[in-house]
Write a structure and sequence with these properties.
This protein is of the alpha/beta class and 177 residues long. The chain is 47% helix and 18% strand. Bound molecules: 2'-deoxyadenosine-5'-diphosphate (DAT). Its EC number is 2.7.4.3.
Length: 177
């Protein structure tokens, strides 16, 4: 039994996963697990894909590496995919969304190649991540939040923080008399 929840934070690159996780880690004490960083630092990959400019992730190795930490609870699991994380690990899935113009500007300022940029914009327009989340987890634990403006970010962080507080109360171990 976990006494602190695990939250998957997902969405197309550039929607604001890292920024939200950093704020949430400060506000809730949950730990930010950046899957990109873990893949890189712990070698959970089978090499570098030049075409996509990303690691070819070894999913089994990644899950083995994360297991002990995640099973204890209290993790913000930050990645642009979500279907690989076992259901038993996950208490909430947050899918961040952004509109095309906003996402275009954010990815452009990261110097994404045009093909990669377009692929990510298409993925966002075609609801790829929200579908993946709904296909992989019970619908009542999947929420979709807009992340275009700093006001929306503030609201999102408040809302998730409130959810964490409530989850923690609801799942507190029963006191023994
Ligand atoms: P991700 O981790 O999903 O790739 P990020 O957190 O690195 O995205 O954010 C990309 C950029 O966009 C970064 O400069 C912060 C900015 N950003 C993200 N969400 C935002 C929001 N809701 N309002 C304003 N800026 C935001």
């Amino acid at each position: 039994m976990r006494t602190s929840p695990n939250i998957v934070i997902t969405g197309t690159p550039g929607v604001g996963k890292t920024t939200h996780c950093e704020l949430l880690a400060q506000r809730t004490g949950l730990r930010h697990l950046s899957i990109n960083q873990i893949v890189k630092d712990k070698g959970c990959h089978e090499g570098w894909d030049e075409e996509y400019s990303s690691w070819i992730v070894d999913e089994d190795r990644l899950l083995d590496t994360m297991e002990e930490e995640v099973e204890g609870g209290g993790c913000l699991i930050d990645w642009h995919a979500c279907d690989l994380f076992p259901k038993r690990w996950v208490d909430l899935v947050v899918v961040f969304r952004a509109n095309s113009a906003t996402l275009y500007d954010r990815l452009k300022s990261r110097n994404y190649a045009e093909a990669k940029l377009q692929e990510n914009l298409d993925s966002e327009l075609m609801d790829v991540l929200i579908q993946e989340a709904r296909d992989s987890y019970d619908e009542e634990i999947v929420i979709e939040l807009q992340s275009n403006t700093s006001e929306e970010m503030e609201e999102n962080v408040d809302r998730i923080e409130a959810w964490v507080k409530q989850w923690t109360l609801d799942n507190a171990p029963a006191k023994e008399n």
